[in-house]
Amino acid sequence: MLYKYQKYLLGIALVLLSIAISIRGSDGKISLVLHNYPVLIFLMVLVSLFLGAAYFQINSRRISSLLSQIREQSKNKNEEIEVLLDELSERQKEVYNLIVSGKTNKEIMTELFIEQSTLKSHINQIYKKLNIKSRSELKSKAKTW
């Protein structure tokens, strides 16, 4: 609940601190404006420190929460990707890896000793199983996986 007011905590802390340590000069002397009220100065500084600490504590908790959410989403995404890639046959995985590594169809056919029609069949099956429409989409998704 405090995170709603987090942006105000630091501002209030700075205002209180600046009031507590504000100075004035007169007759060649520089002194605290509230020099006659040392307890008030102490309390203002103390409250300022408390508000600053609360601000950073809230920030830390929010960052931890966001990090946990990111890790969970990443874990779920990786599991989904693993399921999709597991659907590929061994030969399709080989073709997939060669495409992702930047090989052309001709280079893939030469490396795997297969005909163009066989390669195209593997590629079409990869696209279908991974719900992808083009080689460029496959490469861009593979980078994020």
From TrEMBL:
Tagged with keyword Transmembrane: yes
Domain HTH luxR-type positions: 81-145
Keyword set includes Ion transport: no
Superkingdom of origin organism: Bacteria
Coiled coil spans: 67-94
SMART domains: HTH_LUXR
Keywords in alphabetical order: Coiled coil, DNA-binding, Membrane, Transcription, Transcription regulation, Transmembrane, Transmembrane helix
This protein's name: HTH luxR-type domain-containing protein
Species, as recorded: Algoriphagus jejuensis
Taxonomy of the source species: Bacteria, Pseudomonadati, Bacteroidota, Cytophagia, Cytophagales
